[in-house]
Automatic annotation (TrEMBL):
This is CMS1 protein. It comes from the Eukaryota. One of its GO terms (cellular component) is nucleus. Pfam families: CMS1 (PF14617). InterPro entries: Cms1, P-loop_NTPase. Coiled coil: none annotated.
């Protein structure tokens, strides 16, 4: 059986905190001590309610970030974002950026993916400008963080595009490289 055949039969369901906890323990379980694994566990209070698939992306963001205007106005740091949205692909990132127009207002959004954008360009943009929302892929975000081009200290929200499926019906968390 191909993974796409299996995934085609499973209905999309909202991600839950336990899904992420299981992935973290699977990924880090082999090379971490019991104490270190215990420290990786996040309490349920760290998680906001998942999109129950009845909301558009903008309406979901409005629901989970009711004080967005205040957060946006108080953010003054360069090389950082208040909200980071992680997607499985550049095309999905662009789709989400277009769909959040009702939510974002006059804030600045930066694209954090590799398709047609060089990492040096993104590093320069982050250094010179101030951005409120970053939307991108895990690989590019990781590269920017490792090169100290993106600082995560002032980040308040991490949104995982957990349920979206690509042409092969894989979710972001089904891709081994992620």
């Amino acid at each position: 059986k191909k993974i796409s055949d299996v995934l085609q039969k499973s209905a999309p369901k909202p991600g839950v905190p336990a899904d992420l906890q299981n992935l973290l323990s699977q990924h880090f379980g082999e090379n971490r001590s019991v104490i270190e694994i215990e420290e990786l566990k996040l309490s349920d209070s760290c998680f906001l309610p998942a999109n129950d698939l009845t909301h558009s992306f903008s309406s979901y963001l409005k629901e989970i970030c009711p004080k967005w205007a205040k957060l946006r106005r108080s953010h003054k740091e360069k090389k950082s974002v208040v909200m980071l949205v992680l997607c499985s692909s550049a095309l999905r990132s662009l789709e989400l950026i277009k769909s959040m127009t009702a939510f974002k207002g006059d804030c600045r959004v930066i694209k954090l993916f590799a398709k047609h954008i060089k990492i040096k360009e993104q590093m320069n943009m982050l250094e010179k400008g101030m951005f409120h929302i970053g939307v991108g892929t895990p690989g590019r975000v990781k590269a920017l963080v490792e090169q100290d081009a993106l600082c995560l200290n002032s980040m308040k929200y991490v949104i995982l595009d957990w349920n979206w499926r690509d042409q092969k019906l894989r979710r972001m968390m089904d891709i081994p490289e992620v």
